[in-house]
Amino acid sequence: MGEMIMKRLSLCATAIICFVVLAHTANARSAYDGSWDLVFVTQRGACDPTYNFTVNISNGVVTHPNLVKFRGYVAKSGAVRASVTVQDKYASGSGRLSSVSGRGTWNGHAGNARCSGYWTAQRN
Q1: Are residues 66 and 13 in the same domain?
Q2: CA atoms within 13 A on the CB side of 74
Q3: Is the pLDDT of residue 5 over 80?
């Protein structure tokens, strides 16, 4: 009888631990999660003067609903790296986010034109 009670207690304890771990993992959010407006400004090269779009960050992964070839990641420190390809245009950049804004540099090309500049971000 005592052995059966110990097995049940052990099983309950294991279930509780699993529940707590899973609940914590499910709620793991990045401090940068949410919608961000980005502005890319060309400083050198013959690319468009500015590019504007909105991205979403979830658990440190940066996504855009219409840009299939967009990859971006934000570290816990706020360091961010991203790249995007749209037709014959490619850009990659890095920088840093704070809780409400961010800034960094980028470089890339549009066709044969090589370009570079800076980007800014504002949390929505």
Answers
A1: no
A2: 27
A3: no
